Amino acid sequence: MVPLIHRIWPWLADVNAPSLRADAAAALLAAVLVLPQAIAFAALAGLPTTWGLLTAAVPCVVAALAGSSRHVLTGPTNTMSLALAAALVPLAALGSAEYLRLALVVTLMVGVVQIGVALLRLGVLAHFIAPSVLLGFTTGAAVLIAWHALKSLSGWPTLDLEAVGLGVFVVTVYFGQPSFVAPLWIVLFALMGAALLGALGLIAGLWSEKFDQMAVFQNFVIMPMTFLSGVFYSIHSLPKFWQAVSHFNPFFYMIDGFRYGFFGLSDVSPWLSLGIVLTATAAASALAVHLLRIGYNIRS
After folding, report:
1. Where do the structural domains in the chain lie, given as residue ranges?
2. pLDDT digits over 105-144, tens only?
3. What is the mean pLDDT of the chain?
4. Which run of H or E residues covers position 29?
5. CA 212, CA 91: separation in Å to the nearest integer?
6. 8 A C-beta contact, residue 233 and residue 129
7. Of 244, 240, 262, the residue nearest 185 (C-alpha)
Protein backbone atom coordinates (compact mmCIF):
# COMPACT_ATOMS: atom_id res chain seq x y z
CA MET A 1 0.00 0.00 0.00
CA VAL A 2 1.34 3.42 -0.99
CA PRO A 3 1.96 5.64 2.07
CA LEU A 4 -0.32 8.68 2.39
CA ILE A 5 2.56 11.14 2.11
CA HIS A 6 3.58 9.59 -1.23
CA ARG A 7 0.00 9.82 -2.50
CA ILE A 8 -0.02 13.54 -1.65
CA TRP A 9 3.49 14.21 -2.96
CA PRO A 10 4.40 11.38 -5.37
CA TRP A 11 7.66 13.10 -6.29
CA LEU A 12 9.05 12.24 -2.84
CA ALA A 13 9.70 8.72 -4.14
CA ASP A 14 12.26 10.19 -6.57
CA VAL A 15 14.16 12.12 -3.90
CA ASN A 16 17.62 10.74 -3.15
CA ALA A 17 21.14 12.03 -2.57
CA PRO A 18 21.99 12.62 -6.26
CA SER A 19 18.67 14.38 -6.90
CA LEU A 20 19.16 16.61 -3.84
CA ARG A 21 22.61 17.64 -5.08
CA ALA A 22 21.21 18.41 -8.51
CA ASP A 23 18.30 20.36 -7.00
CA ALA A 24 20.64 22.36 -4.78
CA ALA A 25 22.78 23.35 -7.78
CA ALA A 26 19.68 24.24 -9.78
CA ALA A 27 18.32 26.29 -6.87
CA LEU A 28 21.56 28.25 -6.60
CA LEU A 29 21.64 29.01 -10.32
CA ALA A 30 17.95 29.92 -10.32
CA ALA A 31 18.39 32.25 -7.35
CA VAL A 32 21.23 34.09 -9.11
CA LEU A 33 18.90 34.72 -12.07
CA VAL A 34 15.46 34.99 -10.47
CA LEU A 35 16.14 37.25 -7.48
CA PRO A 36 17.49 40.21 -9.50
CA GLN A 37 14.67 39.66 -12.00
CA ALA A 38 12.11 39.75 -9.21
CA ILE A 39 13.43 43.11 -8.00
CA ALA A 40 13.17 44.46 -11.55
CA PHE A 41 9.63 43.08 -11.95
CA ALA A 42 8.60 44.78 -8.71
CA ALA A 43 10.00 48.07 -10.01
CA LEU A 44 8.05 47.62 -13.26
CA ALA A 45 4.85 47.09 -11.30
CA GLY A 46 5.53 50.03 -8.98
CA LEU A 47 5.76 47.79 -5.90
CA PRO A 48 8.37 47.57 -3.10
CA THR A 49 11.39 45.46 -3.90
CA THR A 50 10.71 43.22 -0.88
CA TRP A 51 7.41 42.26 -2.51
CA GLY A 52 9.30 41.21 -5.62
CA LEU A 53 11.60 38.97 -3.57
CA LEU A 54 8.63 37.40 -1.81
CA THR A 55 6.83 36.69 -5.09
CA ALA A 56 9.98 34.97 -6.37
CA ALA A 57 10.27 32.68 -3.33
CA VAL A 58 6.82 32.00 -1.88
CA PRO A 59 5.11 30.77 -5.11
CA CYS A 60 7.92 28.22 -5.59
CA VAL A 61 7.26 26.75 -2.14
CA VAL A 62 3.51 26.68 -2.70
CA ALA A 63 3.89 25.12 -6.15
CA ALA A 64 6.25 22.45 -4.81
CA LEU A 65 3.78 21.44 -2.10
CA ALA A 66 0.45 21.92 -3.88
CA GLY A 67 1.18 22.08 -7.61
CA SER A 68 0.23 19.35 -10.05
CA SER A 69 3.39 19.67 -12.17
CA ARG A 70 7.06 20.20 -11.38
CA HIS A 71 7.63 21.83 -14.77
CA VAL A 72 5.13 24.72 -14.59
CA LEU A 73 6.68 28.19 -14.31
CA THR A 74 5.84 29.98 -11.06
CA GLY A 75 6.47 33.54 -9.95
CA PRO A 76 6.21 36.97 -11.59
CA THR A 77 6.95 37.88 -15.19
CA ASN A 78 7.48 41.18 -16.99
CA THR A 79 4.08 40.81 -18.67
CA MET A 80 2.32 40.42 -15.32
CA SER A 81 4.18 43.42 -13.93
CA LEU A 82 3.29 45.67 -16.85
CA ALA A 83 -0.31 44.46 -16.83
CA LEU A 84 -0.65 45.23 -13.12
CA ALA A 85 0.87 48.68 -13.47
CA ALA A 86 -1.22 49.52 -16.55
CA ALA A 87 -4.40 48.49 -14.73
CA LEU A 88 -3.72 50.31 -11.47
CA VAL A 89 -1.96 53.54 -12.47
CA PRO A 90 -5.21 55.16 -13.72
CA LEU A 91 -6.83 54.35 -10.35
CA ALA A 92 -4.17 55.35 -7.82
CA ALA A 93 -0.84 57.14 -7.61
CA LEU A 94 2.11 54.87 -8.32
CA GLY A 95 3.56 53.55 -5.05
CA SER A 96 0.85 55.08 -2.83
CA ALA A 97 -0.92 53.16 -0.06
CA GLU A 98 -4.06 52.93 -2.20
CA TYR A 99 -2.00 51.57 -5.10
CA LEU A 100 -0.52 48.86 -2.87
CA ARG A 101 -3.96 47.98 -1.53
CA LEU A 102 -5.36 47.60 -5.03
CA ALA A 103 -2.38 45.45 -6.02
CA LEU A 104 -3.14 43.11 -3.11
CA VAL A 105 -6.81 42.95 -4.07
CA VAL A 106 -5.99 42.08 -7.69
CA THR A 107 -3.53 39.41 -6.54
CA LEU A 108 -6.12 37.87 -4.23
CA MET A 109 -8.75 37.85 -6.99
CA VAL A 110 -6.36 36.14 -9.42
CA GLY A 111 -5.74 33.47 -6.82
CA VAL A 112 -9.48 32.95 -6.30
CA VAL A 113 -9.99 32.58 -10.06
CA GLN A 114 -7.14 30.06 -10.30
CA ILE A 115 -8.58 28.03 -7.41
CA GLY A 116 -11.96 28.04 -9.15
CA VAL A 117 -10.38 26.83 -12.39
CA ALA A 118 -8.62 24.03 -10.50
CA LEU A 119 -11.73 22.92 -8.61
CA LEU A 120 -13.82 22.87 -11.80
CA ARG A 121 -11.05 20.98 -13.67
CA LEU A 122 -11.05 23.61 -16.43
CA GLY A 123 -7.32 23.39 -17.08
CA VAL A 124 -8.01 20.70 -19.68
CA LEU A 125 -9.55 23.40 -21.89
CA ALA A 126 -6.07 24.68 -22.67
CA HIS A 127 -5.47 21.53 -24.75
CA PHE A 128 -8.21 22.59 -27.19
CA ILE A 129 -6.85 26.08 -27.89
CA ALA A 130 -5.05 26.25 -31.23
CA PRO A 131 -1.46 27.56 -31.15
CA SER A 132 -2.38 30.29 -33.65
CA VAL A 133 -5.12 31.53 -31.30
CA LEU A 134 -2.69 31.60 -28.38
CA LEU A 135 -0.12 33.47 -30.47
CA GLY A 136 -2.67 36.06 -31.57
CA PHE A 137 -4.08 36.42 -28.07
CA THR A 138 -0.70 36.86 -26.38
CA THR A 139 0.55 39.23 -29.07
CA GLY A 140 -2.57 41.38 -28.79
CA ALA A 141 -2.35 41.36 -25.01
CA ALA A 142 1.31 42.38 -25.17
CA VAL A 143 0.52 45.29 -27.50
CA LEU A 144 -2.34 46.52 -25.31
CA ILE A 145 -0.35 46.17 -22.09
CA ALA A 146 2.68 47.98 -23.51
CA TRP A 147 0.46 50.70 -24.99
CA HIS A 148 -1.37 51.34 -21.73
CA ALA A 149 1.86 51.22 -19.75
CA LEU A 150 3.58 53.69 -22.09
CA LYS A 151 0.64 56.08 -21.96
CA SER A 152 0.06 55.86 -18.21
CA LEU A 153 3.62 55.64 -16.88
CA SER A 154 5.40 58.09 -19.17
CA GLY A 155 2.66 60.63 -19.89
CA TRP A 156 3.86 60.87 -23.48
CA PRO A 157 1.23 61.74 -26.07
CA THR A 158 0.15 58.63 -27.95
CA LEU A 159 -2.43 57.72 -30.53
CA ASP A 160 -5.79 56.49 -29.31
CA LEU A 161 -6.20 52.72 -29.23
CA GLU A 162 -9.01 53.08 -31.77
CA ALA A 163 -6.49 54.44 -34.28
CA VAL A 164 -4.07 51.62 -33.48
CA GLY A 165 -6.82 49.03 -33.86
CA LEU A 166 -7.88 50.49 -37.20
CA GLY A 167 -4.29 50.37 -38.41
CA VAL A 168 -3.94 46.72 -37.35
CA PHE A 169 -7.20 45.91 -39.14
CA VAL A 170 -6.08 47.59 -42.37
CA VAL A 171 -2.71 45.80 -42.34
CA THR A 172 -4.43 42.47 -41.63
CA VAL A 173 -6.89 42.92 -44.49
CA TYR A 174 -4.11 43.95 -46.87
CA PHE A 175 -1.68 41.11 -46.11
CA GLY A 176 -3.98 38.39 -44.82
CA GLN A 177 -6.86 39.01 -47.24
CA PRO A 178 -9.49 37.37 -44.98
CA SER A 179 -12.73 36.18 -46.55
CA PHE A 180 -16.09 37.75 -45.75
CA VAL A 181 -18.85 35.35 -46.73
CA ALA A 182 -21.67 37.50 -45.34
CA PRO A 183 -20.41 41.02 -44.45
CA LEU A 184 -23.88 42.23 -43.42
CA TRP A 185 -24.05 39.62 -40.66
CA ILE A 186 -20.61 40.69 -39.44
CA VAL A 187 -21.77 44.32 -39.17
CA LEU A 188 -25.04 43.35 -37.44
CA PHE A 189 -23.37 41.19 -34.82
CA ALA A 190 -20.60 43.75 -34.31
CA LEU A 191 -23.20 46.43 -33.55
CA MET A 192 -25.25 44.13 -31.33
CA GLY A 193 -22.14 42.92 -29.52
CA ALA A 194 -20.98 46.48 -28.87
CA ALA A 195 -24.44 47.42 -27.58
CA LEU A 196 -24.63 44.35 -25.31
CA LEU A 197 -21.16 44.89 -23.85
CA GLY A 198 -21.89 48.59 -23.41
CA ALA A 199 -25.09 47.85 -21.49
CA LEU A 200 -23.31 45.28 -19.30
CA GLY A 201 -20.51 47.76 -18.66
CA LEU A 202 -23.02 50.41 -17.60
CA ILE A 203 -24.72 47.94 -15.24
CA ALA A 204 -21.34 47.00 -13.76
CA GLY A 205 -20.43 50.67 -13.30
CA LEU A 206 -23.69 51.45 -11.52
CA TRP A 207 -23.54 48.34 -9.35
CA SER A 208 -19.90 48.73 -8.31
CA GLU A 209 -19.07 51.12 -5.52
CA LYS A 210 -15.32 50.71 -5.98
CA PHE A 211 -12.77 49.12 -8.27
CA ASP A 212 -12.77 45.82 -6.39
CA GLN A 213 -16.43 45.18 -7.26
CA MET A 214 -15.89 46.20 -10.87
CA ALA A 215 -13.14 43.59 -11.13
CA VAL A 216 -15.46 40.99 -9.58
CA PHE A 217 -18.01 41.63 -12.34
CA GLN A 218 -15.30 41.33 -14.98
CA ASN A 219 -13.76 38.14 -13.60
CA PHE A 220 -16.89 36.26 -12.54
CA VAL A 221 -19.43 37.37 -15.17
CA ILE A 222 -17.76 38.59 -18.37
CA MET A 223 -14.79 36.21 -18.42
CA PRO A 224 -16.79 32.98 -17.87
CA MET A 225 -19.31 34.05 -20.53
CA THR A 226 -16.43 34.75 -22.91
CA PHE A 227 -14.69 31.42 -22.33
CA LEU A 228 -17.99 29.53 -22.75
CA SER A 229 -18.80 31.31 -26.01
CA GLY A 230 -16.49 29.40 -28.34
CA VAL A 231 -14.06 32.28 -28.87
CA PHE A 232 -10.92 30.21 -28.27
CA TYR A 233 -12.20 26.71 -29.08
CA SER A 234 -15.29 24.93 -30.32
CA ILE A 235 -17.85 24.29 -27.59
CA HIS A 236 -18.09 20.74 -28.96
CA SER A 237 -14.75 20.05 -27.30
CA LEU A 238 -16.33 20.76 -23.90
CA PRO A 239 -18.02 18.15 -21.68
CA LYS A 240 -21.73 17.72 -22.35
CA PHE A 241 -22.72 19.74 -19.28
CA TRP A 242 -20.72 22.79 -20.33
CA GLN A 243 -21.99 22.50 -23.89
CA ALA A 244 -25.53 22.73 -22.51
CA VAL A 245 -24.57 25.72 -20.36
CA SER A 246 -23.05 27.47 -23.38
CA HIS A 247 -26.42 27.40 -25.17
CA PHE A 248 -27.80 29.70 -22.45
CA ASN A 249 -24.96 32.18 -23.05
CA PRO A 250 -25.75 35.15 -25.36
CA PHE A 251 -22.02 35.53 -26.06
CA PHE A 252 -22.07 32.09 -27.72
CA TYR A 253 -24.70 33.25 -30.23
CA MET A 254 -22.81 36.50 -30.84
CA ILE A 255 -19.60 34.59 -31.68
CA ASP A 256 -21.54 32.04 -33.70
CA GLY A 257 -23.02 34.86 -35.77
CA PHE A 258 -19.56 36.30 -36.40
CA ARG A 259 -18.36 32.86 -37.48
CA TYR A 260 -21.18 32.63 -39.99
CA GLY A 261 -20.35 36.08 -41.36
CA PHE A 262 -16.70 35.21 -41.90
CA PHE A 263 -16.85 31.53 -42.89
CA GLY A 264 -20.48 30.75 -43.68
CA LEU A 265 -20.47 28.10 -40.93
CA SER A 266 -22.40 28.15 -37.67
CA ASP A 267 -23.78 25.83 -35.01
CA VAL A 268 -27.24 27.44 -35.12
CA SER A 269 -29.15 29.60 -37.58
CA PRO A 270 -27.80 33.17 -37.75
CA TRP A 271 -31.39 34.40 -37.46
CA LEU A 272 -31.76 32.56 -34.17
CA SER A 273 -28.43 33.96 -32.98
CA LEU A 274 -29.48 37.49 -33.96
CA GLY A 275 -32.80 37.12 -32.14
CA ILE A 276 -31.14 35.90 -28.93
CA VAL A 277 -28.46 38.60 -29.00
CA LEU A 278 -31.11 41.25 -29.64
CA THR A 279 -33.18 39.94 -26.73
CA ALA A 280 -30.17 39.89 -24.40
CA THR A 281 -29.19 43.41 -25.50
CA ALA A 282 -32.71 44.70 -24.97
CA ALA A 283 -32.90 43.12 -21.50
CA ALA A 284 -29.49 44.46 -20.43
CA SER A 285 -30.31 47.92 -21.84
CA ALA A 286 -33.68 47.99 -20.08
CA LEU A 287 -32.02 47.11 -16.77
CA ALA A 288 -29.33 49.78 -17.28
CA VAL A 289 -31.96 52.44 -18.11
CA HIS A 290 -33.99 51.41 -15.04
CA LEU A 291 -30.95 51.73 -12.78
CA LEU A 292 -30.22 55.17 -14.22
CA ARG A 293 -33.82 56.26 -13.86
CA ILE A 294 -33.98 55.39 -10.17
CA GLY A 295 -30.52 56.84 -9.57
CA TYR A 296 -29.10 53.57 -8.29
CA ASN A 297 -25.72 54.09 -6.61
CA ILE A 298 -25.40 57.56 -8.17
CA ARG A 299 -23.93 60.10 -5.78
CA SER A 300 -24.68 63.76 -6.21
Report:
1. 179-300
2. 888 888 888 888 878 877 777 676 667 666 666 676 666 6
3. 79
4. helix 17-45
5. 11
6. yes
7. 262
